Amino acid sequence: MSKTVTLTIDGQTLTVPAGYSIWEAAHQVGINIPNLCHHPALRPEGSCRVCVVKVKGARNLSASCVTKVAEGMEVSTHTPEVLAVRKNIVELLLANHPRDCLSCARSGNCELQKIASDMGIRKIPYNYNRPPMKKDEGNPSITRDPAKCILCGRCVRMCSEVQGIGVYGFTWRGINSRVSPAFDLPLDKATCTYCGQCAKVCPTGAITIHNDTDKVWAALRDPEKIVMVQTAPSVRVGLSEALGGKPGDIVTGKMVAALRQLGFDKVFDTNWSADLTIMEEGTEFIHRLKDGGVMPMITSCSPGWVNYMEMFYPELIPHFSTAKSPQAMFGTMLKTYYAQKMNIDPAKIVSVSIMPCTAKKFEAQRPELSASGFRDVDVVLTTVELGQMIREAGLNFQALPDEQFDPLMGVGSGAGTIFGTTGGVMEAAVRTAYELLTGKGLDPLELAPVRGMEGIKEATLTIGKTRVKVAVAHNLANARKVCEAIKAGNPHGWHFIEIMACPGGCINGGGQPISLEMDTPVKRQEALYTDDRNLPIRKSHENPEVQALYREFLGEPNGHKAHQLLHTHYREQIRG
After folding, report:
1. Bridge-partner residues for 34, per DSSP?
2. Can you list the domains of the chain with their CATH numbers?
3. 71 classed as catalytic
4. Is residue 321 flagged as an active site residue?
5. pLDDT in tens, 438-447
6. Per-residue pLDDT tens for 392-419?
7. Nearest Cα to 190, choosing from 171, 172, 176?
8. Which position among 51, 77, 340, 384 has the lowest Cβ density within 10 Å, counted as fewest Cβ atoms?
9. Model pTM greater than 0.90?
10. pLDDT class for 545, splitting at 50, 70, 90?
11. In Å, what is the CA distance from 279 to each residue of 286, 399, 411, 488?
């Protein structure tokens, strides 16, 4: 069988791999066929029919996203018939769509809006006749507006096929058809992990990030409050896209300047507490390894993954590291260590974090994350929300100077930076654990086997006289495979496992800018590795500000005070 197929599209002759769809073939030669249900990260379905084309000899128009190319095929993408049918389909979608585009969270970044504009639709020849539908706003992470759903099925496929959970499904029939959790449950009652991947693939404003910018604006305008902010590793390689830049642009300095311009009193780096997390988590792993603790130990940095474990595999909770996430550790230290050093009343501090993750909003509200007597983090904003605030303030982001983080909690290592991508937490932990156990640095410093976008990755290291096998998994469907392996007796012999809820890790979190290009997460990942290579400190235990924290405040890693403030516990979640 031939491995390639030659066909013509709009008179252009091209040769493409056998198995390509017409849509993929057209995209390869720069022909844009509009679509709404298709997404490069998901299985093609052909439900919206906006991508129809004319195939010579076919009885009807063909959905280009699911029709495979064939030798000698002749395709026309913009005949009068094709354009008329597409336009009518979009007009029908618009007839059932709310007319609040100007105030919609996806205004200016809505695929339905763009396609309607590209098609020159200025009037809708049908009356709006959709019954009223209630918004789902009862959880801290994701807002659902069923009235804006166009039944494309992207969220259904993402949640079922990529994340392996299946929260969403098609319900009712005919004009009452909708996408919702089973029994029309709100997300806070369904088995939703709040990973936000559904919002990443939704083409309209039907699923969006729960917006908390008003809370932050109010705090910034309150003279009685001292508003301090931390910024996660992945934000510095995602923010540029929200402001018109390219994927993978490293904009750390401009981000810091923008946050100061917005009015934050202090601007800090979550890389600092990522290094702190490695000190606690790495030490915990060493103790388990030496003392026969519960193995394999699993990282607990990803709140979507934590939610998943608590709901679906609570029997594996003893395998979790008890170390808090970098976000929570930072918030605790801000209201204890930093407040004492600066002689600030912690009750006046508003702790804000900028995260690539929608599940971080849920994490911040966990009652157990308040060991200091105050909530570790008061408000979580995503990368998208920070971009919104910068635009709202009228800042010319690209013209801002590069500025530095504030001291005491503003120095981060390269190990902290790579926390933002799948495999990064594991690599950072190995850099430190290896050196603490052997007294020698890991050479080479990069742990290549856990890098890349493969779903489950493994590496074996000899640390002193001990062979240690580590594993890395990203997306929750792969997390399920790892959990089932542990339940089956850990036949792989893993000692230490990193799991991230989102495909690619935090670089592709639910709060990052939406992109339809498959290489965008890879570009963000490469940018984090570049940042790691360029930083003067690349190991968490060499961070001088973290060393000062232990020397002046905490004592030793995993000591009594560190356990009191930097560790937590997990519990079974029962929903549905």
Report:
1. none
2. 4-78 (3.10.20.740), 93-209 (3.30.70.20), 214-566 (3.40.50.1780)
3. no
4. yes
5. 999 999 999 9
6. 999 999 999 999 999 999 999 999 999 9
7. 171
8. 340
9. yes
10. very high
11. 11, 37, 15, 30
